Amino acid sequence: MSTNMDFFTRGQPQEVVEEVARLLDCDPTSSKVAEYLDEHDELKHLRQDFLLPKVADLPPSDLSLVDGTEECIYLVGNSLGLQPKLTKKYIEEELDKWAKTGVHGHMVGSRPWIWAENNIEELMANVVGAKREEVALMNGLTVNLHLLMLSFYKPTSKRHKILLEDKAFPSDHYAVESQIHLRGHDPRESMILMAPREGEETLRTEDILAIIEQEGDSIAVIMFSGVQYYTGQLFDMATITKAGHAKGCYVGFDCAHAAGNAELHLHDWGVDFACWCSYKYMNSGAGGLAGAYIHEKHAHTVKPALLGWWGHNMKTRFQMTNEMDLQAGISGYRLSNQPILLVCPLQASLEIFNKSSMKALRKKSVLLTGYLEYLLKHYYSKDESDPSKAYIRIITPSNPAERGCQLSLCFSVPIRTVFKELERRGVVCDMREPNVMRIAPVPLYNSFRDVHRFISVLGSVLAASSELPTEPRMGH
């Protein structure tokens, strides 16, 4: 039996788990399977580049229930990634340089402040499948979304609509609604909100394409998520982009939950624009420096509506003529110099990504999340013969090609109690209203043992919750 990650991704995750179990002559649910997969994980060394919190340091932990000296089970990279170990070193280098050289720090050192973010944009471009000149690191996600929408949303009396998910992340919804208001249109007429079919949780690609075909002549911009934050659905970005272009629409994506999670090819897919935060799977810390992308085909035809001096050509920027020498493409959208203390943690994270590739990380991710799914279904599928047994429903698509690393779970017992009890036992995950718990094993730093430990802890929580009343409208 081969022991490299190519073998692990040759079949479906379930097949791999069961074949490893046969090799080890153990049950597929045995911790031996997790240990074997970790042992033969070619990316396991990347975990050493991150700081994992100890259980005792987590505010909700109850040390009467769990060993405080253990590392926590951190499964919430979809909300905030772990801190890279080099973050502190890089920040301290800049603080030291500021203390010792003052204003000269703009031009000297390993990351001169004037172009510090430029030095890591190629690393970011590699993560999202873009060319170096198509990516800029600046602002926050919603600021970048507004800047991009001001340029790409040019409504006319005929073509004034924006297509997005019904349950888009609130910030996206607010941004789109305000852009429509800003251009003198009514969101009730200009927003097309796509909802899943009755009784379904996720959107079908065929239905998205049908709406584009039906409404495309009136759609100015298609603005979808790359990965849907609530359900974890990974959209077919290439197909959506192609369909939108066929109807004359601009197509953009909020890649907050896709960058560093899914294998993206923004340039090759022809995506017109995109933006993303960097504090989730990109591990840059809360409020970290965000990213933005514009395809090179628009470099000289689509221009920023708002200008700042950092969008001025750097070669002539400090001549201070007040005559804009605009950089082409996304670089022209820069408004101000970037905070150096936000560049540092992002650099630390991108250097870790650079030790591997999104292709390799994605291979591990498919198996890691598939292993989680396998164990959840084994233990917690609905048992029609025993209605009293607690069960879990996964609303994230089962097809690995239609999801990132996150699984969104609904419970037959009160979810808030389950969530609170998991936290008390050193599990870090999150809840999203109305009734979903998001579990995201991240291939950069999560292990198969993390997944097995989570299932074990979840079992003890659900056993303790067995007397709780059921919630008949689970997940709706």
TrEMBL record:
A cellular component annotation (GO) from this entry: cytoplasm
Keyword Amino-acid biosynthesis in annotation: no
Organism: Chanos chanos (Milkfish)
Cofactor: pyridoxal 5'-phosphate
Listed InterPro entries: Kynureninase, PyrdxlP-dep_Trfase, PyrdxlP-dep_Trfase_major, PyrdxlP-dep_Trfase_small
The protein's name in its UniProt record: Kynureninase
Keywords: Acetylation, Cytoplasm, Hydrolase, Pyridine nucleotide biosynthesis, Pyridoxal phosphate
Reaction catalyzed: 3-hydroxy-L-kynurenine + H2O = 3-hydroxyanthranilate + L-alanine + H(+); L-kynurenine + H2O = anthranilate + L-alanine + H(+)
Quaternary structure (record): Homodimer.
Primary role: Catalyzes the cleavage of L-kynurenine (L-Kyn) and L-3-hydroxykynurenine (L-3OHKyn) into anthranilic acid (AA) and 3-hydroxyanthranilic acid (3-OHAA), respectively. Has a preference for the L-3-hydroxy form. Also has cysteine-conjugate-beta-lyase activity.
A molecular function (GO) term: kynureninase activity
Pfam family, one: KYNU_C
Gene: kynu
SUPFAM superfamilies per UniProt: PLP-dependent transferases (SSF53383)
EC number(s) on file: 3.7.1.3
Sequence positions bearing N6-(pyridoxal phosphate)lysine: K280
Family: Belongs to the kynureninase family.
Origin superkingdom: Eukaryota
HAMAP family: Kynureninase (MF_01970)
Subcellular location: Cytoplasm
NCBIfam families registered for this protein in UniProt: kynureninase
Pathway annotation from the record: Cofactor biosynthesis; NAD(+) biosynthesis; quinolinate from L-kynurenine: step 2/3; Amino-acid degradation; L-kynurenine degradation; L-alanine and anthranilate from L-kynurenine: step 1/1
